[in-house]
Amino acid sequence: MKEKRDNVNNSRATTWEEVTPREINPAVFLAAFHGGPYGLRSFAEGAGGRGGGRNRTVTAAELADGALLQALRAENDGEQRGIFFVVNPGGHKDAEITGVAAQFVEADDLPLETQWDKLMAFPLAPSIVVRTRKSLHGYWLLVDADDPGRSRIAPTNQMTSRNVPLSSAGNANSGHLINAPTNQNQIPVLDGDAPDHSVAEAASLARFTALQKQLAAHFDGDPVIANPSRVMRLPGFNHHKAEPVAVCCLLFEPQRRYTQRDLAAALCSLHPADPRFGVGVATGQKAGHKGRAAVALSLPRGDFDLELLLNNCDFIRHCQQQAATLPEPLWYPMITNLADVPGGEAAIHRLSAPHPGYSVAATAAKIEQFRRSGTGAFTCETISAWGFNCPKLGSCPARHPRDLGRVPPPPWYRQTRTGLRLIPGVLANALAAHKKIFYSRQCYYQYLGGVYKKVEELHIKHIIRKYLRTDDVGMYQINDILGQWTMEILRSPENLNANKALINLKNGLYDRGTGTLTPHDPQLLSTIQLPVRYDPQATAPIFAAFLNDCLDPASQLLVQELCGYLLVPETRAQKAFVLVGEGGAGKSTLLAVIQELLLGAANVSNIAWQNLGETFLTAELDGRLANIFADLPSRSISDSSLFKSITGEDWLTAQRKNKDPYSFKTTARLVFSCNSIPKNLGDRSEAFYRRLVIIPFGPPKPPAQRDLHLKDKLSQEAPGILNWALAGLTRLSRNGYRFCSSAASETALESYRVAGSSVRSFVADCCLVAAGRQVSATQLYHAYQQYSGASGLRPVSQKRFWMELKESYGMVEKKKDALSRRIIYDGIDLEELADFG
Predict the structure, then answer these.
(1) Name one GO molecular function term (predicted).
(2) Which end of the chain is more exposed for a tag (fewer CB within 10 A), N or C?
(3) What is the span of the domain harbouring residue 124?
């Protein structure tokens, strides 16, 4: 690299040897990111550095003051403190950041030449490149850099770029030109709430961290540089960790502007097979849209938009195009039209910087001179007299250039003689067309991170309110729009999670049929996403060892199929599961793996078996993959009707607080654990027991041998555990959703049947069931009564006794003895009549 300091533009430099440092004033450098205020920090570094971190928040005017720069240089060189700036606007903490100014990357483990080559090889040329001691900082400035990516009010002195058209294949490498003409057919930005991909989109805080990590992965950069309030070194100061090294710009092209969609698409195209880059920004029709042509949706932007002026006024465009030679008689009229508009002061500095006579201080002084003069902005006629012949003079409706920055009202407002009138239906249709939100089962769902998540009605109302003029909005208007919007986005529950061949994972949609991963798709009304990434090569040796300690081989296969079964909203097996064993046997650990690693808390309800029928709790089963409850209470189960309805794929009636009752079919499979299964006193039918799968755990390890960090270790194996569960699901589905047999499970179920039935207990203890055996019905029932009394059990009626006997032991038949004409039971006999004689 040439060690020559000049103002050579390196935008065409292709090799490291051709690159020369550029002198960029700190104020000009920072103005490229946003309009301020700016967060500056200094940190002690090097042997002579002293003191902790110092934070400053400064305005563009303060940066123009030589005293501030002098103080920063004194800290930098006198105290050996590094000077840094917060890249994104808003403050010094993550929670204070209000928008995304740029995406950026640093890779200090590679040679500088390699870093430069990688930056230049990227499909989207960086807007800015800064050199430090051993790293290059690449920045991609974003369209709408100052537009908040979440629900906050933007500072009034911020610049916006709302009407900058998107790049195409022809200009992808040059980015979005800030002075490009307005595209009258584009859909304005969808602002404010969750990420929403319209034709032109605001930079989103929600996407910022993910893109930072993807850039770091591509450039072999530092993955830690991912939080919104990240600071980077400010050019124009020295790096003091060893001998002083100047931090300088190598490339400065602030007119290059991109969207996060551009960056995501570029990264995805470079790494099509890498799951870290496989989920790009979704496109296509919005979930709530039914195909009608709808008006564009954009936030009310106040009365003025700087970019409308910069793009629509011939005089201001002339000032941009002739910035290097603009004479003062035209420079000053430009200042008068920009100085007092939102973002105007920063725009003046940006438009003035190319002139050889530019200085921050002189420009700031000229702005202050105008403000103190008390005069207004120069009119178009006056500017014409001062030397600019506007081709539209006389035909343009504007009296001043700044008038062309007046923002027209959104299309859901109609101008009347008395002012603006809201048309609720127009806004409702626009929201339905543009927002990835739908309504089903008395809930609103919004597309966030590849899945539709439940959101509160208050959140939906908040979205509506942001599109209304705050000086004239009432709850009756919000409720009117909400009602009309809801009618447009109503979806049948049958359309939710309809494709059971797809499993929604953190890094994409897993196709069970092909074993492949595809990007998330908002057209798929998926309300269930598992909190685990798919990695086909992942294994889980620690988890396998854990299972070996807890379960016999056949039970391990059963648990594998159980875990696979829970991954999909499939209920045809009609089974519920109970893990049984002593404390410390591993039951809770397995349930934690299922809930926290495989399914996610959002997809699981936690209701005890005994409480399933309680008011308002049944609704918790709606939309869940499982209902998991560890350590069931010991009290008996008195009513199993809801249990059989849940496992039997029946319709359930539920009610949410302050809502009307409604019906649904649940996909929540019941999974419980306990030391001993609660007694079932209400239902001893086969319909109950055939729905139950009991999985007994072995004896616990001694406390001294238990791994207290096992759950943390298992969390690192989540992708491998997922692969293991998917194998179980494949085996289960191929077997027609009939679970594999386990002798331990079958024995445990039979023991539970016996324990829950006085009839079965009596037969097990006192009878012999075999062909050719007979006993008097009266004698057998009398013996049963004696047994129940001796055992502290309540005997059932003789009619019920026979029904349970027949249901449990199919070979037993009731007959009439040919000689005595008495009723006898054939196929059963008492073993020890003497005990009851």
Answers:
(1) ATP binding
(2) C
(3) 10-162+200-257
